[in-house]
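Project channel, design review

CF: Before we commit to the Streptomyces tardus constructs, I'd like one complete example in the thread so the newer folks can see what an input/output pair looks like. Taking C1 regulatory protein.
RD: sounds good, go ahead.
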Amino acid sequence: MASSPSAPAGRGPAGPAESSNHPHQPNPAFRRLRGQLSPREFAASVRRAAREIGEQVSCDARYIGRVEAGEIRCPNYAYERVFLHMFPGCTLTDLGFTQRDAVRGRAARRTRTTVREAAGDRPAPCASDHSPGGRAGCGGPEHNCQSTTQSYEESDVLRRAFMTGGPAALATAPLWGPAQAAEARPGPTDGTTLPRPRAAEGTLGRDDVLSVEEAVRRIRLLDDRHGADNLYRRADLALRQTFELLDSGARAHAHTERLHSHTGELALSVGWLAHDSERYQEARSHYGEALALARVGSDPGLEAHAFCNTAFLARDAGRPREALRAAQAGQQAAGRLGSSRLQALLALREAGGWGGLGDRAGCEEALSRARTLFDKGPSDSDPEWMSFLCDAELSGLESQCWSALGDWERAAELAREAVALQPAQFVRNRALFTAELAGNLAVGGDPVEAATEGNSALTLLETVRSARVRRMLHATAERLTPHTRHVEVAGFLARLSA
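CF: and here is what came back for C1 regulatory protein:
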């Protein structure tokens, strides 16, 4: 989370599309590369290698097991770069993977189409709108569509066969493209359908649970890249379907515990989208649902996450005392997890509450504790959702605290640091902290630089949609209105109004 529960690009463990017509073949070459390391130890080495080249992946023992079992025939682009960095001179084939074009290229599509037709299974009609204003790039063989060029992370969204139904239809739909610059609304005009979960017919299974997990990753990725505004309604629909999945499978004890956890994470992701879109009441409701699921499932990780988001929301909604209580409750829940980074984030949330109350001593103590915990470094106990917590985020959250305390110079210094350190994949976070920098400079009496930073934030908003960032820029514009004699200020105000 840019201050969000979002996840970085490429961190999901799923690889490219897998054809249901290809039985899994073990990958002995990859197993040999692991050597004497356990899957958990090897996963840790993958994460370390990713950090060396500026990637962020949440590789775990389960992912290594899926690769070695042949479930992942080709890694996504982020993992590919990490593996090739770890084993210089090797190709994907050397690592035991199938070439990408054979997995999801035209040749693979032709093979799958031929197999289906030979079995008497004709291609399904395309659900995309192919009118001039419709969604580009359905990928349907009968249309010969040209896919819209997207970033490599977003193109890597075709998953295994189970991803074609249920809530994960959200995850596999190419939600972003030029034809969707306006806010997307669920319905027949947006070219995306979300089939009812299979478990509505009483057949809850492992694949349904995995599809919910994948939907969470996909939402976080899109949020990091594009912000919340255009994504919220679709994600909310996926969440409602997931609750149907949970209700229909209530007696399927083998999968219900995991489904509770993944549904809670999905509720938090949807709640964050509502939060960033300034739908505060809806966000509060989603966070409450997640907390209830955490309590039902006795899941301290989900509970800590829910309290963390609740604290952040309360601070933004002007309820600092509630933010303080939620952050402290989250720290109690997280105490059982052994993650210093999670405790650091919750201490930062606590500092935000103290700052909102105007308690400088309490804020400084919480910030000092957060810095000490953060400096202990990452660990295998860190939850996947908080991979966004890096030096840039730490500086940005500290900046918000000093802004709340009225120390604009210190707030601006830290916000500038947050922008400079922000990883490239967190576009929304960069826009957020740039907007905060502009606001701090405007209040601190530097209108020209404030306008310059405001223009930088507007440039980022060409690809990011966040009501929160827009509101911050409008507040900055109000402060700059008396300074229109400066050409930079006049230009910023004109661009914002346009």
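RD: helpful, thanks. The chain has four domains: 1-122, 205-298, 303-389, 417-498.
CF: Confidence is low (pLDDT under 50) at residues 1-21, 104-202.
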